[in-house]
């Protein structure tokens, strides 16, 4: 039977649901970018110890110049997560330091996750003393809920109220871990932090601060699979698998005159999206994804769109997350490619 000719529009997959979902996310992401840009403008200034007015034994922290870029992927993920969790309250966070310092959003977040209510007066207070008292009550509630000794916590009332980004990140990462939030945080993030302390004179020391470690969030509860075994015990066979998947990609992307040399640079999602379109024989319009992503946020948008496409046609467990692909995790990239290979290996 001859194959019935079809136009580009006949081949176009119904993406209404995906596009609507991405449109909703886009509005939040635009606000997220604004917040990141504002933070960068402030943090680009080199910390000056003389600018701090400290009492004896008081201390302040500041990021070393250019260290903020290391935190951008983590900040973007956390902002998107908070906005998702509190979407029913019409709360939109743009900037972690500016929006979380008084504790109001932290209270809404911990109450939503724990299902508990903070007793007492939690109304918005305009005075600094009232705000700090309220923040102390909220942080005590968070520490009690997560069974954390306040003395051991890396987030103090003064730090959060003074908009200390490092303290805020430590708190949010701890909340993600405790409540087993289903997001994938970048692993092994460390930054250089300047600690300024008043001991008769101002003293400055630079330390390495660890924000996340391996498996920083408990969301990654994937079952072990063949790729875990290949990476750990059979590197020679791993190369054979990589070559087979590379050949598979070249075979199909060659139809678009796209040359691919390795599987190492697929974190922006573009080639994987194009591959998906070729395999399913449908047209993906340019406006549906970012053809030339220039930052992590745009890469993540593409990877989420890729996963939406796969869910539409394959409906199989992927054993990884869009964030894993956007972070350039080779094992996750191979998992996605093998899923496509398994379903379309006989496709011309």
UniProtKB/TrEMBL annotation:
The keyword Cytoplasm applies. The keyword Repeat applies. Residues 72-180, 239-345 form the Calponin-homology (CH) domain. This is Alpha-parvin. One of its GO terms (molecular function) is actin binding. GO terms for cellular component: actin cytoskeleton; focal adhesion; sarcomere. PROSITE patterns: CH. Belongs to the parvin family. It is found in: Cytoplasm, Cytoskeleton; Cytoplasm, Myofibril, Sarcomere. One of its GO terms (biological process) is establishment or maintenance of cell polarity regulating cell shape. InterPro entries: CH_dom (IPR001715), CH_dom_sf (IPR036872), Parvin (IPR028433). Keywords: Actin-binding, Cell adhesion, Cytoplasm, Cytoskeleton, Repeat. It comes from the Eukaryota.
């Amino acid at each position: 039977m001859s194959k019935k000719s079809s136009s580009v529009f006949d081949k176009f997959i119904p993406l209404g649901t995906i596009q609507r979902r991405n449109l909703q996310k886009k509005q939040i992401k635009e606000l997220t970018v604004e917040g990141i840009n504002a933070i960068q403008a402030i943090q680009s200034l080199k910390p000056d110890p003389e600018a701090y007015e400290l009492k004896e034994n008081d201390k302040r922290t500041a990021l070393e110049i250019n260290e903020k870029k290391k935190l951008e992927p983590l900040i973007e993920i956390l902002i998107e997560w908070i906005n998702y969790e509190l979407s029913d309250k019409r709360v939109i966070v743009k900037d972690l330091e500016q929006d979380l310092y008084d504790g109001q959003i932290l209270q809404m977040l911990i109450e939503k996750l724990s299902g508990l209510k903070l007793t007492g007066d939690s109304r918005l207070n305009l005075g600094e003393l009232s705000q700090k008292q309220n923040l102390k009550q909220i942080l005590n509630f968070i520490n009690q809920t997560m069974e954390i000794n306040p003395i051991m916590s890396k987030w103090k009332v003064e730090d959060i109220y003074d908009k200390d980004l490092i303290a805020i990140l430590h708190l949010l990462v701890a909340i993600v871990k405790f409540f087993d939030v289903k997001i994938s945080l970048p692993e092994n993030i460390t930054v250089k932090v300047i600690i300024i302390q008043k001991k008769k004179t101002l003293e400055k020391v630079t330390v390495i601060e660890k924000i996340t470690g391996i498996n920083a969030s408990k969301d990654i509860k994937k079952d072990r699979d063949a790729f875990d075994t290949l990476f750990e015990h059979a590197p020679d066979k791993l190369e054979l698998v990589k070559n087979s998947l590379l050949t598979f990609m070249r075979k199909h992307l060659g139809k678009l005159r796209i040359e691919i040399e390795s599987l190492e640079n697929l974190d922006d999602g573009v080639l994987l999206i194009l591959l998906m379109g070729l395999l399913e024989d449908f047209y993906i319009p340019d406006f549906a994804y970012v053809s030339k992503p220039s930052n992590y946020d745009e890469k993540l948008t593409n990877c989420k769109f890729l996963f939406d496409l796969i869910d539409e046609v394959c409906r199989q467990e992927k054993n990884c997350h869009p964030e894993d692909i956007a972070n350039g995790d080779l094992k996750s990239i191979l998992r996605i490619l093998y899923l496509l290979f398994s379903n379309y290996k006989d496709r011309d």
